[in-house]
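#struct-pred
JK: can someone run the complex with zinc ion? inputs below
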Amino acid sequence: MQIAPQPSFIRQPAGARDRPALVLNADYRPLSYMPLSLWPWQEAVKAAFLDRVVVISEYDEVVRSPSMEIRIPSVVVLKDYVRPARHAAFTRFNLFLRDEFACQYCGSRGEMTFDHVLPRARGGRTTWDNVVAACGPCNLHKGSKTLRQAGMRLRKPPQEPSPGELQNIGRKFPPNHLHDSWMDFLYWDAELDA
Ligand SMILES: [Zn+2]
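RT: done, structure tokens with the ligand placed:
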């Protein structure tokens, strides 16, 4: 969501730089888990100023204009519900996310590359069901061979994930920094043992 630029009446207060606001949809769920929907403080303040969000939690820090003083929001809720996308965008990030940042051949994590299951040289296409995350060594070993020729197996058949599936996977990978005021609205791994 883009917020139109507003008059630059707000000065950058010390310490405000690292005060992002968690952005919740009108149903009080995060707009997205991965990456976690966060706005820089300027955007959150603008949105509050324009009455596009309800501020439900704030930081201690304030920003000042000549005429007003606003505490920096730490959690905001959109007033208008944003309908989730029907299809997950086919992006590098989403593909890694679908595969949980793990090599689909050996399961290792770390530096990932993309591998065409049916090599492009053999007509393989760049689609959800033909591209997987692979570590360097596995990718090198497979080369332009088919699975059978390379004697390799996939851990699971690659397919297009739904946006909801991606969100659920994203919940397994919380960002490094989570502000206390966000916790009531986040459910990292919460349902897995239910
Ligand atoms: Zn591997």
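RT: quick notes.
Residues 103, 105-106, 108, 134-135, 137-138 surround zinc ion (CB under 6 Å).
The first helix runs from residue 41 to 49.
JK: thanks, will look after standup
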